[in-house]
Amino acid sequence: MIEIHGLSKTFTDRRGDTVTALDDARLDVAENEFLTLLGPSGCGKTTLLKCIAGLVPYDSGTIEIDGRPIQGPGPDRAMVFQNFALLPWASVVDNVAFGLRLRGVARAEREERARELVATMGLAGFEKKLPGELSGGMQQRVGIARALAVQPQVLLMDEPFGAVDEQTRRLLQEELLALWEEQRPTVVFVTHSMEEAVLLGDRVALMSARPGRVAELVPVDLPRPRARGGGPDRSGVYAELTAYLWDRLREMHEEHRTVRTGAPA
Amino acid sequence: MIEIHGLSKTFTDRRGDTVTALDDARLDVAENEFLTLLGPSGCGKTTLLKCIAGLVPYDSGTIEIDGRPIQGPGPDRAMVFQNFALLPWASVVDNVAFGLRLRGVARAEREERARELVATMGLAGFEKKLPGELSGGMQQRVGIARALAVQPQVLLMDEPFGAVDEQTRRLLQEELLALWEEQRPTVVFVTHSMEEAVLLGDRVALMSARPGRVAELVPVDLPRPRARGGGPDRSGVYAELTAYLWDRLREMHEEHRTVRTGAPA
Amino acid sequence: MTRLNARLPYQILTFALFAAAWELYARARGGLLLPGFFETLRATGALLAEPELWRALYVSNQALVLGFAIALALGIPLGILLGRFRTLERYADVWLNILLVTPMAAIIPLLVMWTGIGLTSRTALVTVFSIVMVIVNSRAGVRQVDPSLIEMARSFGAREREIFTRVLLPGALPAVMTGVRLGLGRAVTGMVIVELLMISDGVGGLILEYRGLLKAPPLYATIVIILAEALLLISAARWCERRLTHWSRTTATRANLAGSPK
Amino acid sequence: MSALRRLPAAPLSLAAGAMVWEVIGRAAGVSFFPPLSTVLDRLGEMAADGALLASVRDSLLNLLLGTAISLVAGIVIGVAMGRSRRVEAALGVYVYALLTAPSLVFAPVFFSLFGAGRGAVVAVIVMYAVFVVIVNTAAAVQAVPAHLEEMARSYGAGERQLLPRVVLPAATPMIMAGVRLGVGRAVTGMLNGEMFIAVVGLGHIVTEAGGSFDSASVLAVLLIVIAVALVAIALVQAADRRLTRWVPQTAKGAQGK
Amino acid sequence: GTDAGTTSLPGGKLSFTVAVTEPDITAVPVLAAADAVRRQGHDVKIVELAEPELAIEGLAQGDYAISAEATGPALSAIDQGAPIKIIADVVANQWAVYGKPGTGSCTDLRGRPFGIFSEGAVATAMSKDWVRATCRGATPDYLTIGGSDVRAQALAAGEIDATPLEISDAVALESTGRADRVTKVADFAKTLPDVHPQTVYANADFLTEHREVSQAFVTALVREHARINASANHLVRLVHRYLPDEDPEDVPRIAARYRSRKLFDAAALTPHNVQRTIDFFARADVIDPGLKAKDAADLSFVREAAS
Ligand SMILES: Nc1ncnc2c1ncn2[C@@H]1O[C@H](COP(=O)(O)OP(=O)(O)OP(=O)(O)O)[C@@H](O)[C@H]1O
Ligand SMILES: Nc1ncnc2c1ncn2[C@@H]1O[C@H](COP(=O)(O)OP(=O)(O)OP(=O)(O)O)[C@@H](O)[C@H]1O
Ligand SMILES: [Mg+2]
Ligand SMILES: [Mg+2]
């Protein structure tokens, strides 16, 4: 469904220095697939998502959705932003209803849908608050609700659960999966948690840094619903997969990092 | 060393509604202790940290450091902000050197220290970039480096590793522990990861939401250096502790949350 | 209310200082053209009872209201456009600067030629006086909007028009309102100047009359009344500003200035 | 559009304006709106005279003094008003009153304070320019993101360090907008001060020519004034661009693709 | 601005200031007179001001010794007790009402826009006086237009039907090729010959303390006027010297017209016409009635100069 070929993107900063965020990246995401994306910080995950969203002009390559090259942003896609990007002047409900409003949904209907999602996100009672009056995790959930509200065919999520606690994260994961089962959007989901990547994804895409490209695609052959223990325990397959991902990422890391390592023990 | 008694803080928003972020919270942190803080999103962790930092005026209660009530912010404390709070006009190095500059450290010296820390954070080569030219995880690491640069007695860290990948997180954890062993600051460290809380903390403080207060203090009686498997495997004690934390937090969660739960499986 | 009360002592203090300085200076150095504070106060009271004043205010304010409304209706969108479209800005900037610096006395003959000496030219002049302030500040406001919000809006399918109304305008509003305050001040000046130089039917006529007769107290009384009107309008704009941009208190330092940690 | 972007905008735009002026001036054929060529001829005559040069020099000195005072005073007072509610409460009314007050009000006061010399003209320039700078600076300072100030205070920044390290940089875009307006107003103030109190410098020429229906001379002087202003504002904008390079672009067409 | 005040120099000479307001052709004899005094060794400074009110303020404060412009504000100031005296004439009544072609009399202006300067200005007062006297209840629609050039342009552009103009304005209007679009409706020089709208006035203390210098100034002024009346070319020369920016084509025509109508006569003031001028301004509500010519003017200098 999403086909990306030879995608390259170089940023030039104000002093003329260049950073190559994406270099000849390729990725295919099937219709209704839930793809999770793992990679070291700064490898180009956000850039890739923004390219798919049609927000960032890229230097070369093609991005096609259903066989048609994308022309900027479209109503088929919605994105959850890593930095939330909430409108500071709009209340929680208005922020969540933002996409619906742009689509011309009538006031009563969009407010109802927004309120419902706000409650789903565990933010009932905060409907009228402004983003500046929320905690970090609450803001993040508003951003998620906003994207879910428009029921897109393609859902682009950039570390959507990074700022919430484990319990909330689990609940939100369940919510997201339930929604995915119901509406079957294609999801590209960036995360730093290998457990999360395995729990949610049909496949896990591993990105490498500089050159930023998809280094490996790992299929997750586990039946859904994927049972998860009540606690942090994990079944063997989980552990195996996450251990594999862990090793692969560490290899990539060691190739590229210049971190002065303490004893990695 | 840090003694907090009966701390209460209520926010009043523009419409006169109130949210009680902290209600009669109490917490003692010993000298040189590494305390980790876990709690549901929106329970008041950031507010508590900002109170200790002397940034937020509170309604009642006392915060004493070494027996003296705090008078606003002081050079003994440094904070890593959840939303990074980088100066958008200053380069990475200048951002990291910000605290040093305020303390009157000479240019050459502060730049050297900043560059060193930038490299430690895995950002070598990005010294002259502006925050707007960095990825989310990179920005977060700049914020950490800035706090470490001033070598404070009290280090207040608000989800400092939330936006970086697992590998980087591990490296940064090692770096932080090494620094802590060396300089012995008192650390209050907010995290959403129970593994991280147990790995780093001498004690884990569990916060409950509404009323926001410290519900329980869990000592982590594990010797340091705490070995961690090369992968996601964990020793029995770890698993036990994290499982305990997990249960406690879920209990709190269930008391307070109104999330429309899907099947919690 | 508490805020009002907190400010009041300072306002009273500075007003007392101001009045005393005025009175003392006028007594020491004042002549025919510089009345004392109390003299002016008395004359203001007397003038307020004159129906002529109210008629003059009515006449003058027609141009003010119309002219300023046009300045807002044109200036805000134009400022936002300039902030948004670089190319447009580069071409329009010169003219904006020219508009800013051209002494209005010089364009009055041209205005008379084009639009006669009726309400139209007075209105046009008020607009010309105030619009630059609105445009320049609206443009500066747009530059302060977080670009990731534009990105976000685009990702939800916002067209350019919607980016304007839903992102740029609200985001720039604090700066726009600063421009509105400045513009209001200039519009009132314009209202007076146009009458001094052109058709002096309203308050400008009063000023010319009292000045020509060297009647300093009513002259300054007229000016006091005009300034009072301007201040009233500016406070009204402030009030609207606070209502429209209350959100900025959750993001801007202003909110924190009142108190610091105990 | 992309072709337009590469051309030097200001000269092109001015040239177009000049052409329109010439055409309308010729077509209208009225004495009070002579075509540009006539005005330029007159400007040449005046320049050849030499008196013009002296006037311009004199006016420029006034402008320089007045602008410098306005910017320094405007930013200092504006910051004080932006940072302190008390100062704002104490001064706000006067700032807005003086912003509005027509220069006619000041004329007798300055006249009695400074006589009809340079002092009065400089004072008029300051009166014209300073309040715009104050208002914009105050608003800019109040809009500084709270989290940045919080961060700086957590590192022990006092008011003295907060201002140069956080408040002023963050407020720069709006302050510069005010400076731009202020410099523009200063140029107007220069001419008006020379017209409405003491009749000297360029104001003298305008008054003289205006009294004898000599539109060409009036417009010639205006051309000089506008040229001065454009140069002054260009300097401001160059400074602005340098100082606010960090501001992430909301404008379209700012970068390549 | 006390630095501009009168001071004595060694050798019995004097340093003082003459203030002029936007000098036009009528003021050049005053400037020439100041030069004549300067040639006697005194230090005479010239200040150009934008408004007559500022000059009068300076006179009242003693910053300036002598000034010359509109009589109305001076009388207002004198009426309010300012130490100012009228000492000579600048130019006799030169005002006339000009109207659209076809405007024959005041009655044609009934309800039509009539441009006036502000209340209190002499031309306004004279126009209203004229309307009262000749229109029998038919009043035009007065439009106050502050700037005299704006007024002239408004007339030429047909925005107003009539307005009072000075000779130089009228000539300038003619020379811009629009003379055929206006016609003279009334000539105040003929109907109100005793009103002297522009006079020379001085600080009263200056006059008593420095009689000789004051006398020298007035004498020089009278002599300049006499020379102009002998030859209009003298005025042209003066204009060329003092107002080099003035349009060289118009000046001879304006000068000729002033001369032919004998408008320049600094010594023309008498107790009688000063009183008539005062009465006129009182009638026009510019000053309160009751001011006496001997309190407002010191005509001893012009008498001395004329003898
Ligand atoms: N606007 C920009 N200007 C210049 N460089 C940029 C810009 N945006 C991103 N980059 C650079 O592009 C690279 C990839 O950034 P990106 O935000 O896509 O990383 P990421 O994979 O999302 O990282 P993280 O996990 O930390 O969010 C980084 O090196 C970053 O410095
Ligand atoms: N400036 C503010 N105005 C009003 N309410 C606020 C403000 N800041 C925080 N709150 C409220 O206080 C409560 C605690 O917020 P806080 O940021 O301390 O939570 P947190 O524990 O840090 O959450 P998270 O893990 O999501 O960051 C929240 O309910 C929030 O809505
Ligand atoms: Mg990212
Ligand atoms: Mg928080």
TrEMBL record, chains A, B:
Name the UniProt record assigns to this protein: ABC transporter ATP-binding protein
SMART domains from the UniProt entry: AAA (SM00382)
InterPro entries: AAA+_ATPase, ABC_transporter-like_ATP-bd, ABC_transporter-like_CS, ABC_transporter_ATP-bind, P-loop_NTPase
SUPFAM superfamilies xref list: P-loop containing nucleoside triphosphate hydrolases
Superkingdom of this protein's organism: Bacteria
Organism field: Streptomyces coryli
A Pfam family reported for this protein in Swiss-Prot or TrEMBL: ABC_tran
Domain ABC transporter, chain residue ranges per copy: 2-234
TrEMBL record, chain C:
Compartments, as annotated in UniProt: Cell membrane
Protein's UniProt keywords contain Secreted: no
InterPro entries, sorted: MetI-like, MetI-like_sf
CDD domains in UniProt: TM_PBP2
Gene3D superfamilies registered for this protein in UniProt: MetI-like
Keyword presence, Cell membrane: yes
Main subcellular location: membrane
Domain ABC transmembrane type-1 span(s) in chain numbering: 57-237
Keywords: Cell membrane, Membrane, Transmembrane, Transmembrane helix, Transport
Gene Ontology CC: one annotated term: plasma membrane
GO biological process: transmembrane transport
SUPFAM superfamilies according to UniProt: MetI-like
Source species, domain of life: Bacteria
Transmembrane regions: 63-82, 94-117, 123-142, 163-182, 219-239
Membrane association type: Multi-pass membrane protein
Entry similarity comment: Belongs to the binding-protein-dependent transport system permease family.
Name of the protein in question: ABC transporter permease
Organism, scientific name: Streptomyces coryli
From TrEMBL, chain D:
Membrane protein topology class: Multi-pass membrane protein
Principal location listed in the UniProt entry: membrane
Transmembrane parts of this sequence: 60-81, 93-114, 120-141, 162-183, 216-236
GO biological process, one term: transmembrane transport
Domain ABC transmembrane type-1: start-end pairs: 56-234
Keyword Membrane: yes
UniProt KW keywords: Cell membrane, Membrane, Transmembrane, Transmembrane helix, Transport
Source taxon at top rank: Bacteria
UniProt-listed InterPro entries: MetI-like (IPR000515), MetI-like_sf (IPR035906)
GO annotations of cellular component type: plasma membrane
UniProt subcellular location: Cell membrane
Pfam families: BPD_transp_1 (PF00528)
PROSITE patterns (alphabetical): ABC_TM1 (PS50928)
Gene3D superfamilies documented for this protein: MetI-like (1.10.3720.10)
The keyword Transport appears for this protein: yes
Family: Belongs to the binding-protein-dependent transport system permease family.
Name of the protein in question: ABC transporter permease
